[in-house]
## 1
Amino acid sequence: MDQPVVSRGFRSKRRTSGAAELPPGQYLTTDFPVLSAGPTPDIRVADWNISLQLGGTLLGRWTWDEFEALPQTTIKTDIHCVTKWTKLKTVWQGITFDDLLKVVGLDAPPNAFVMAHCDGGYTTNLPLVDLIGGRAMIATRYEGLPLAPAHGGPARLLVPHLYFWKSAKWLRRLRFMPKDEPGFWESRGYHNYGDPWREQRYDGD
Ligand SMILES: Nc1nc2c(c(=O)[nH]1)N[C@H]1C(S)=C(S)[C@@H](COP(=O)(O)O)O[C@H]1N2
Ligand SMILES: [Mo]
């Protein structure tokens, strides 16, 4: 999920100008704004679990300790909020969706879409292809520290190549869906997919 490694000779000169890192209409920020549709839930890891569901079947459910024992990956990536801030080179640690599928032994999920469900009722929908291939993780640490509650701790989805509303905070359940369904913002006028490089902010963009 990091910037692709490009040999010096092939690196575009524009990349060092800074502008090339900014999707259209975005500005750079160095602080980390908090954007939530509701209050920050008070989550104790002792009561917490996370599950992966396919139809009526529970593929896996992990307590905090079990989840912490899964293979860990660290990534450095840029994040882009639809409210127009972009933050460069943020560092996250967690469990990639690829590893989660491996753990439950699901090589080729039969459903092409996934709904993320959160404490507090927030949801967001994603195509499966955007969660695999190292493009998404369930993050539990930010810049080496446990993820702060306001930023989705103990665990949030991280799908940095899409607008940040797709990175569901306080994640509790990932559910495979045979057909795409809109999540919270997607049913309130936001774009169904949300590619920042194509500026897919709102329905119809
Ligand atoms: N559960 C939940 N996840 C959420 C949200 C929310 O309101 N609830 N807001 C989304 C939006 S619109 C954005 S921009 C990011 C903000 O993440 P941050 O507060 O860590 O910057 O979280 C996303 N994930
Ligand atoms: Mo957002």
Note: The pocket of molybdenum atom (ligand 2) is lined by residues 35, 81-83, 164-165 (CB under 6 Å).
## 2
Amino acid sequence: MIAKQPDSKKQSSKKQGSKKQGFATRAIHAGQEPDPTTGAVNVPIYASSTYVQEEIGKHKGYEYSRVSNPTRDHLETNLAALEGGVAAKVFASGMAAINAVVTMLKSGDHIVAGHNLYGGTPRLFNQVLVNFGLTFTYVDTSDLNAVERALQKNTRLVFLETPTNPLMELCDLRAVSEICHRHGAEVVVDNTFMSPFFQRPIELGADMVIHSTTKFLNGHSDGLGGVVVCTKPEQAEKLAFLQKCAGAIMSPFECWLILRGVKTLAVRMLQHDCSGRKVADYLAKHKKVQKVFYPGLPDHPQHELAKRQMTGFGSMIAFETGSLANANKMLREVRVCSLAESLGGVETLISHPATMTHAAVGEAGRRKIGITDGMVRISVGIEDVDDILADLDQALAAI
Ligand SMILES: *Cc1c(COP(=O)(O)O)cnc(C)c1O
């Protein structure tokens, strides 16, 4: 099976001309029109902190770059078009984007969050934001009854990832949005793992989407950033106000990197998906691998949901080697794969969640949700897949 091009009639965002442009076309052209003064086909890096004014209060729409910057505006237009939102706001990192979303709330508000999130997210919630009167309840968001039971009168947000990191559990986005809206809570989806190429939560009912653009959107492991995509102009206004007040904005250079990276998102994701499936199949058959977590495998408990709400399965795979010692034996041997945190780059990155991305969750927390010491996570890159497979083969032989 080949990943489907994700554009289909069911897309609902606004039309351009008579026919809505396809995803790859939007990735290259939305917000990226040639520069009107010079004709440059790439959006320039506007490295300017301030902007000249003709007279008091008369300017071209820009006053100071914490508030707004032309390079940033172009990127925000582009990312809103890719997720099908009305606007987007970009931040200095994925964590800054998540922090901005939660600081839209106020003391006394309650947030329901997935129990298996990127490790930095519960660290922000439990070690920083709880000190400001926000409360959090963690649930398995693949269990819709558990989500509904956790909703309180003061629940304002449900924050989730699907698939989760690194266990690759899915949440039914259409169903969870329906439940949350019935109770007056908004749904925020961290869509970093799938990118808008394979999954667009807003079309399924989500109220906001966030990304660490550090990962697939930029795709080249050379810049940090985050984005919040909004469905309502009021959300964007509030986030713009937070950018101005708190200042955790993305720099013009980083904006330019992502504008460049996103132009190849469609072709990169197709290759990530194609190689991801091959690596998952290989691992599933390997004698030394005890379990593989990948929604594209027919024995994944939510394989049918994955086929329904995503247009591909992506390249994030977790697998069980049996012990910390086994994980380390193989991770020491990899040569094509790089042992490193992060994901979504053109290069294959392999990591150990228990000591890396999910160290802050603590041993008890990891045990509760099923992240073991023997678990290894791989973000399959776009090198020749035979080289990736050969590398994994020789590394697994060390176990
Ligand atoms: C990396 C990551 C984040 C945090 O983003 P940064 O850019 O590192 O701040 C949040 N969510 C997910 C799913 C991630 O992978």
Note: The first strand starts at residue 87 and ends at 91.
## 3
Amino acid sequence: MYNIPPKIHLAYLPTRIDKLNKISTEYGKNIYIKRDDLTGMELSGNKVRKLEYSIAQALKLKADTLITCGALQSNHCRATAAAGAKLGLKTVLVLKDGEKTPPSGNYLLDLMLDADVRLISPQDYKNVDKIMDNICNELKANGQNGYIIPMGASNAIGMFGYMEAIREILSQEKELGIHFDAIVDTVGSTGTFAGLVLGNVIYNAGFDIIGFSVSEERSYFQEVTYNNIKDCCKYISNENYTHTPQSLGIKKEDFNIIDLYRGEGYGINSPDDFKLIKHLASKEGIFIDPVYTGKAFKGMLSEIRHSQLKNPVGSDIPKDGIHADFSKYENILFIHTGGLFGLFPKAAEIADCIRF
Ligand SMILES: *Cc1c(COP(=O)(O)O)cnc(C)c1O
């Protein structure tokens, strides 16, 4: 009763689910991690699941060039460039260049993957959709055929990656003999969260899905998520079934997006972020990243503490704002969406903070 579009095979799936034993003991919950950082190496992280659907669409339309955009250190752009190289497609990346820095991290890898990188100012980036349209038109004038993937591949087609991840998690629950009460993810451009929410409904999975924003406010991301789901309903509908958010019982207000742990803004870290990243590394042997998963993981642990103690003494958990009630949950699954290469451009900052 639901149409699922075709995909190509790029990611190493299924990704493992492991228990974080020491963190679980420390926080009095069973905390598990799904290693979507291990969907590949060059093609690592959550974007690969989305690109399996976006690029299938591009190939169907006989595209020879992928065009996409993001921040200078975008994991999505690096994954797209790697997929392009592997599949013999050209890749044009429109990157927001905040500061002129020597190539490092993902940006260095983009260049090594031979992507056609166009650096634009944050001011110009406001019109990035128009800029990508223009590039696509230029290509057409030269007899080439571009396919535009929006930022983060967070559109209706990309969402299928995480709708289908819900099915993967359901089958892993059976294998492991565990039911996860809540799934926690990072919200950067919402495709992952929106896919999980829709998959949860369609596959009747019964999870609470909780997203931690690393950039925008809760209400903004609720709106974007809703629009993504509405668009995706067109894809999943067929001649016998017309789906809408209403028909699926999906309401904007129900999207559980916590925006209390964004810090000073996208890509900006506090020393506490790095300490938490180091804590996880030293206790569990797992690296999370500064821009996305580090903030979300820190948010999840803080919200668990908040649910247990309400006003933890001396903590930096915000008093105001909307919290998630983790007291209801025993088994929690955090999705590690990747981003490791983002650690390296912050090497000096990290080194300063962890030598305490
Ligand atoms: C892009 C990204 C996210 C956010 O996912 P969205 O689907 O854009 O919300 C989370 N973690 C990492 C490492 C990412 O690169």
Note: Strands lie at 17-19, 30-34, 65-71, 90-96, 116-120, 146-148, 182-187, 208-213, 256-258, 331-335.
